[in-house]
Structure formats: C-alpha cells, structure tokens
Amino acid sequence: MESVTFDTLAAAKTLERVGFDDTQAEAMVKTISKAVNESVATKADLKVLDESVHGEIKVLDESVQGKIKVLDESVKGEFKAVRAEFKALDESIEGKLKVLDESVQGKINVLDESVQGKINVLDESVKGEFKAVRAEFKALDESVDGKLKALELSMTIKLGAMQFATALFILGVGKFLFS
Predict the structure, then answer these.
(1) Predicted pLDDT of residue 9
(2) For residue 40, is pLDDT > 80?
(3) In 56-93, which positions are buried (b, 16+ CB within 10 angstroms) versus exposed (e)?
(4) Disulfide check for 45: which of 41, 103, 129, 142 has CB 3.0–4.6 Å away?
C-alpha cells in the first residue's frame, strides 16, 4: 500500500511552537502519520476498489439480465397459457350460449303453439257466442217485429173505427148513437 504524503517536519515545528519539546513533537507526528497511512485510502486503493466494484456490478448486471430474460420468457409463457385458457373459455361459453339459445327457442316455439291453440279455441268460442247472440237478436227482432205488426194492426183498426165514428158523427148519424 502506498503512503499518504504528510509533511512531518512542518507538523513537528508547529507542535514545537505551541510548547511541545522535540521528542514529544516527533512522537506525535509519527503517531499521526501512522494513523493517516493506515486508515486513509490512496488513489491506488480507490482504483483497485473501483475495478472490484465495477467487476461485481458487471457480474450482478449479467445475473440480473439473465434472470430478467428467464422471467420474461416465463411471463410470455404464462400469457400464452392464459390466452389459451381464455380462448377455451370463450369457446365453451359460446357453445353453452348456443345450446341455451336453442333450448329457449324451442320453449318459445312450444309456448307459441300452445298460445296459438288457446287463441283458436277462444276464437271459436267467441264466434259461437256471437252466433248465439245474433240468433237471440234475430228472435228478439222477429218478436218485436211481430208485436209491432200486431200493434200496428190494432192501431189501424182503432184508427179506422175512430175515422168511421167521426164520419158518422159528421154525417149526423152520430147524434142518434150518442144521444
């Protein structure tokens, strides 16, 4: 290891000016010089450390890149598997929807036929009821017509009788009849 440049003579003179004797100043400067040389990193130390760190970073980077590549392939495989599952699920759902649609359509057809049958029965029933009501109206009409003709005949006879009585009265015959 290289040593750090430290001006020991200047340091010893500074210590002597503040009251240290030669022996004390020399001992203090040696102690400080040794501590500095043992604990302070030199440019060479930093260069070795830098090369070491760069080497470790390169190894770590290669390792991370390898792991990223493996993870990327794994994720791509997972996505491919998920896509296949979605496709299978989609096909399954489509098949089930088709079956359900056919089932519902069949039930609608059966219901439609049932409703149409009930409508036909109801239609026939209503037609029969209307036919019966028409017959009743026809009978009622004939009855009313007969009663009106009888009433008309009765009224005609009474009117004729009244006209005859009026004519007799006018001719003077009435005075004998009503006197």
Answers:
(1) 87
(2) no
(3) eeeeeeeeeeeeeeeeeeeeeeeeeeeeeeeeeeeeee
(4) 41
Q: What token pair was written down for 70?
A: 């493996």
Instruction: Kindly report, residue by residue over 17-36, the tens digit of the pLDDT.
Output: 999 899 998 999 898 888 87
Percentage, residues of the chain above pLDDT 70: 94
Q: How far apart are CA 111 and CA 121, in angstroms?
A: 15
Going by C-beta distance under 8 Å and a sequence separation of 6 or more, which residues neighbour residue 148?
none
pLDDT at 165: 76
Q: Is 25 exposed, middle or buried (0-12, 13-18, 19+ CB in 10 A)?
A: buried
Total Cβ atoms within 10 A of residue 42:
14
Residues 6+ apart with CB under 8 A from 22: 12, 16
What single-letter amino acid sits at 113? E
Residue-by-residue DSSP string for 2-50: PPPP--HHHHHHHHHHTT--HHHHHHHHHHHHHHHHHHS--HHHHHHHH
Tokens of 167: 């004519």
